[in-house]
Amino acid sequence: MKDEFDQIYTKAGGSGMNAFTSNDLTFFFINVPSNKFELWAWMESDRLMDSVFREFYSERDVVHEERRLRTESTPTGRFQEQFEAMFWISSGYSWPVIGWTSDLNSYTMDGAMEYWNTYYRPNNLVGIIVGDFKPADVKAKIEQYFGRLETGKVKPPQVVTLETKQMAEQRMNAEGDFQPEVDVRYHTVALGHKDGYALDMMSEILNGRTGRLYKTMIEGSSIASSARANYDGRKYAGAFSFGAETKGDSTPEQLEQAWYGELKKLQDELVPERELQKVKNGVAADSYRRLQNNFSLLVQLAFAENSLGWKELNAMPTKLQAVTAADIQRVAKTYFDVSNRSVATYKRKAGAAAAGDDPDLAALPAPMRARAKQMAAQLMQSTDPAELRQGLDAMEAQGAQVPAQMKPMFDYMKKKLQGRIAELEAGGGAAPVAAPADATAPAAAKPAAKMKAKASDAATSAPTTTPAAPNAAAPKGGGQ
């Protein structure tokens, strides 16, 4: 029976079953009522014990489609992928999480089962439970159901190829249909290194509406529509990046030079104590706020346990508070050499439209714009207001569950959806002529048919949320 695994959960009050893959882990999750915990323990242990892949090849096609949607069909997707591959010289991080197209084409059932039997075994698994439960009862159920599983016969191989030292500056120049921007990136340290906490605080000094980047590049010189800095600590390596989008007639080169000016200030001058303490207060408040939501706590525990152990979640706020102005100056001088940087500049090809042609699109955070633009274009292909209204109803039902970081894109798509419905009901808005997406559905029909799914996707998805390996199918006797 198709989707029986999901239907069993839904009938029992379960919701939100999904998965995502990051650079270092794959994460499966679901919400279930407290009194259905035993059902969860049976369902999950049974599919780990006796998995089937009934729809392997159709699911492989779904991953292909997602790659096309999120990478190949977006203005900057393949350029960003190329920049990642250029930046990470020797480590596995040079591979995109979703895989290259040739990777997806080569996946076979036998290969998937081999991967499953190596990595999806109890000796390579961490379970995290957050909510209303009695620890003793939960422990007993875990031992009862998950204790049935056999340890994997093949031990996951150790990571032996680590990132090598970059010896010279790397540059990539891209032209296309996008707002001009720049991305400057440096190799730093992996999670757990003491300098990682100083790099994290350095990014906090730079970010936000009261941060240095906003004050100088957006409010001050007004050369950027957005600017951000980020320390990306991973299990085996780390990076620090600066990125910004142009505003008006400014150029990526101007943004790059403005960044070097901010960096030099951090290298030459200690961050004033008042400024540092203000940032620390904000970091502490954010740390507590992230503990208020069950799903946020679940994800934080997962990432902490995967790298440094779950206790890092409690220890990290103290470590961040201990960072000094001298620590920030030291890391600014240590990791930001010319030979250690990679730079990507994105320039608009002659004749391409500017993001400013759509003020709502231009107001979105830079990483969301390409995806939002593509989804809005698909929306304009739809000519059925009834189906679009179903999509709008679905979005409104999900509104309260939208993560804060995805709210701008959610609101943008909702506004576009409302506008398209009004246009069609007024008797206008014929879809542009386009080639059929496949042999059975014309291009005008496909976006409407998928609107509910796309609305949900816009509300909840991050750029990389598809497992690299095929999901487990339902337990024996079920189906997916």
Can you put this structure into words, describing what you see?
The chain is an alpha+beta fold. It has 3 domains: about 5-145, Metalloenzyme, LuxS/M16 peptidase-like (Cytochrome Bc1 Complex, Chain A, domain 1, 2-Layer Sandwich), CATH 3.30.830.10; about 170-350, Metalloenzyme, LuxS/M16 peptidase-like (Cytochrome Bc1 Complex, Chain A, domain 1, 2-Layer Sandwich); about 365-460, no CATH class. It has helices at about 5-10, 35-50, 55-70, 75-85, 100-105, 110-120, 135-145, 195-205, 210-220, 250-270, 275-290, 295-305, 310-320, 325-335, 360, 365-380, 385-400, 405-425, 445-450, 450-460; strands at about 15-20, 25-30, 170-175, 180-185, 225-235, 240-245, 340-350. Strands 3-7-4-6-5 form a 5-stranded mixed sheet, with helices on both faces. A two-stranded antiparallel ribbon has the order 1-2. α8 (about 195-205) packs across α14 (about 325-335), α10 (about 250-270) crosses α14 and α17 packs parallel to α20. The longest helix has 19 residues, at about 405-425. The radius of gyration is 24 Å and the shape is globular. About 25% of the residues are buried. Residues about 430-480 have low confidence and may be disordered.
In short:
With 480 residues, the protein is α+β, with helices and mostly antiparallel strands. The protein has helices spanning 4-11, 37-49, 56-72, 77-87, 101-106, 109-119, 135-146, 194-206, 212-220, 252-268, 273-289, 294-307, 312-321, 325-334, 359-362, 366-379, 385-398, 407-425, 446-449, 451-460; strands at 15-21, 26-31, 170-176, 181-187, 224-233, 238-246, 341-348.
